[in-house]
Design a protein that fits this description.
Blueprint lengths: L2 E3 H4 L16 E3 L1 E2 L10 E2 L13 H6 L4 E5 L11 E4 L2 H15 L3 E6 L4 H12 L5 E3 L9 H7 L7 E5 L7 H9 L3 E4 L7 H4 L2 H8 L11 E5 L3 H6 L8 E5 L9 E6 L4 E5 L6 E3 L4 H16 L7 H6 L9 E4 L5 E4 L6 H13 L5 E7 L8 H10 L8 E5 L1 H10 L8 E4 L2 H8 L7 E6 L7 H8 L1
Parallel strand pairs: 3-4, 4-5, 5-6, 7-9, 7-10, 8-9, 10-11, 11-12, 17-21, 18-19, 18-21, 19-20
Antiparallel strand pairs: 1-2, 13-14, 14-15, 16-17
Length: about 450
C-alpha cells in the first residue's frame, strides 16, 4: 500500500495549507471510513448532501490515522492536527492514486464488460499468480472511488495489478482507464445492464470501449470477438495496442474446440494447445470467461500448458455460480450477485442442461435498470423457459411477476409460482426440495436473493 511522508504527498497532490510541522509523518494506506481506520492510514472525508465525513476526522485520528485530508470549503479545520487542506477531497483522492500509479513499476490489467468481469478478474489473477506477484480489485471497488482506493492499496513490489472497471454512465470508464493506464484492456461482453442510463446496447458498447482510452503504448486489447458491437467499435482503431479476440467461433484468436460440463465444472480444449483444461466452476459461459483470462496471461508469457495449475485452485467471488448443498441435500447454484437478461439466460440454460437431477427449480427475480422495456424483457424471459427441462419456476418481485406471466404461456399454471415476499417464497419452496433437486437462484443485487439460499442452508 502507499507509504509516504506528508512532505512527499505535497509533490503528489495540490495542498492548500503548509503542513511543514507535520512533514515527517508517514501515512500507510488510505481509508474513507473512520470506523475502519487502520494504524497509519490517511483518512479521506467526503462532503455529501446529507452527511459530511469531516465530522469524523478527529475520531479517525484518535483511532490511529496518521493524517487526514480536509476540503477547504468546510469550516473549522482542526489546525493543531496533521491536516492536508485540498480543493476537493474526492479529486485529491483520485489524483493521489494517479500519482502513486505513475510511480509504481508494475503492469496493469483493466477489465470491464456487462457480465463476467469479476469472474475474469478472478481467473486472470489465478493464472498470472503462477509466475508473478498479483493483486486484484477486492469486492466491488471498481468505480470512481473504489478504483483509486484499490490502486492506493497496491504493494510497491506487486508485478501485476488486475483492476475491475465498472460504470453507471458514459465517461466513467474512460476516466478510470486514464487513471489506471492499463497494459491490457479486457472487455468481456456487452449485455443489457445500464440500458436505463445508456439507452441501447450500442450505447453500452460505446461506454465499455472507453477502456482503451488509457491503454499504454504497445499494450493489448482483448475482447469477446463474437460480439458484433465490439468488433464494429474497434474496426477503425488506429492506436498502437495489439488486438486479440476470444469466443465460441473459430474466427477468434482463441476458441474452444471441445467442451464438456458436469455437476461440478467444465472440461475443455482450445485451438492453441493440446492440453485438456478443467474449470472447477459451472457453466460453458465460464469457459469463454476463461479464454479471456488465458489470452491475458499468455501476453505476460504464462504458457498455455501451465494454466491448468491456475484453474485447479480457482475460487470465484461469492454468489457467482456458487454450488452449495442445502439442509435437505438439494443442490443450489447461488448466482444471486446480479442479473441482466444476458446473464439470466445463461443461468437458465445452465440449470436446464445440467444432467442427473430428478427435479429442477428456478428461483428468479427482478432484473433492474433495464429502462422502458423492462416488463417486456421479463415476460420474454419467462416465455423462453423450456418446460421439458425445468420443473418449477418460482419468481420474486413485481418484475419477477412478469417472468411468471411469460412462463405461464408455456408451463401449466401449477408449475409457476409468483411471490412478492421472500419468506413466503422460502416456505413454499421447501415443500418441493429433496436430495434429487437442483435450484438455480438468480436476480439483480437489489433483490438480495442470497437470503433464499441462506434459508435453505439453515
Amino acid at each position: 500500500m502507499i507509504n509516504r511522508t506528508l512532505e512527499q504527498l505535497q509533490n503528489m497532490i495540490q495542498i492548500e495549507n503548509n503542513p511543514t510541522a507535520f512533514k515527517d509523518i508517514v501515512i500507510k494506506g488510505v481509508s474513507i471510513d473512520s470506523r475502519k481506520v487502520e494504524s497509519g492510514n490517511l483518512f479521506v472525508p467526503f462532503k455529501g448532501e446529507s452527511s459530511d465525513g469531516h465530522r469524523f476526522v478527529e475520531d479517525a485520528l484518535k483511532r490511529g490515522a496518521s493524517a487526514a485530508l480536509w476540503q477547504k470549503d468546510v469550516p473549522d479545520p482542526p489546525t493543531h492536527l496533521p491536516i492536508l487542506m485540498v480543493e476537493d477531497t474526492l479529486i485529491a483522492l483520485q489524483e493521489l492514486a494517479r500519482s502513486y500509479r505513475n510511480e509504481l513499476d508494475m503492469k496493469v490489467v483493466g477489465i470491464t464488460g456487462s457480465n463476467g468481469k469479476t469472474t475474469v478478474k478472478d481467473m486472470t489473477a489465478n493464472l498470472l499468480a503462477l509466475q508473478y506477484k498479483v493483486q486484484k480489485t477486492e469486492g466491488n471497488y471498481n468505480n470512481h472511488i473504489g478504483l483509486p482506493l484499490t490502486i492506493l492499496s497496491l504493494d510497491e513490489d506487486t508485478d501485476i495489478a488486475i483492476l475491475e472497471m465498472g460504470m453507471s454512465g458514459k465517461g466513467e470508464i474512460e476516466f478510470l482507464s486514464k487513471l489506471a493506464r492499463p497494459n491490457v484492456a479486457v472487455i468481456t461482453n456487452i449485455g443489457e445492464s445500464h440500458l436505463q442510463d445508456l439507452g441501447s446496447r450500442e450505447g453500452i458498447a460505446e461506454a465499455k470501449l472507453e477502456i482503451i482510452q488509457g491503454i499504454v503504448d504497445n499494450g493489448l486489447i482483448v475482447y469477446m470477438g463474437d460480439e458484433i458491437l465490439l468488433k464494429e467499435g474497434l474496426s477503425h482503431y488506429e492506436g498502437r495496442a495489439q488486438i486479440k479476440t476470444f469466443g465460441r467461433r473459430s474466427k477468434n484468436d482463441l476458441y474452444p474446440v471441445e467442451m464438456d460440463t458436469d455437476q461440478k465444472g467444465s472440461a475443455f480444449r482450445i485451438n492453441a494447445s493440446e492440453t485438456e483444461y478443467y474449470l472447477p466452476v459451472l457453466g460453458t459461459h465460464n469457459i469463454l470467461n476463461a479464454l479471456g483470462a488465458m489470452l491475458t496471461a499468455h501476453y505476460f508469457e504464462v504458457p498455455y500448458e501451465k494454466m491448468n495449475d491456475g484453474f485447479s485452485s480457482l475460487k470465484l467471488t461469492n454468489m457467482r455460480m456458487e454450488l452449495v448443498e442445502g439442509k435437505r441435500g438439494e443442490r443450489i447454484i447461488n448466482d444471486a450477485y446480479n442479473a441482466s437478461p444476458t446473464s439470466m439466460r445463461v443461468a437458465i440454460d445452465l440449470a436446464s442442461n445440467l444432467p442427473d437431477y430428478e427435479r429442477k427449480i428456478l428461483v428468479i427475480g427482478d432484473m433492474l435498470e433495464l429502462g422502458e422495456k423492462e416488463k417486456e424483457f421479463h415476460f420474454e424471459m419467462g416465455r423462453n423457459i423450456d418446460p421439458q427441462k425445468i420443473n418449477f419456476v418460482f419468481t420474486l418481485g413485481n418484475l419477477g411477476a412478469q417472468i411468471a406471466e411469460g412462463a405461464k404461456t408455456v408451463f401449466p399454471s401449477e408449475r409457476v409460482l409468483s411471490f412478492l415476499e421472500k419468506q413466503t417464497l422460502v416456505e413454499e419452496l421447501k415443500k418441493y426440495t429433496n436430495a434429487e433437486t437442483l435450484i438455480m437462484v438468480k436476480a439483480s443485487r437489489g433483490m438480495k436473493l442470497e437470503e433464499v439460499v441462506t434459508a435453505l442452508l439453515e
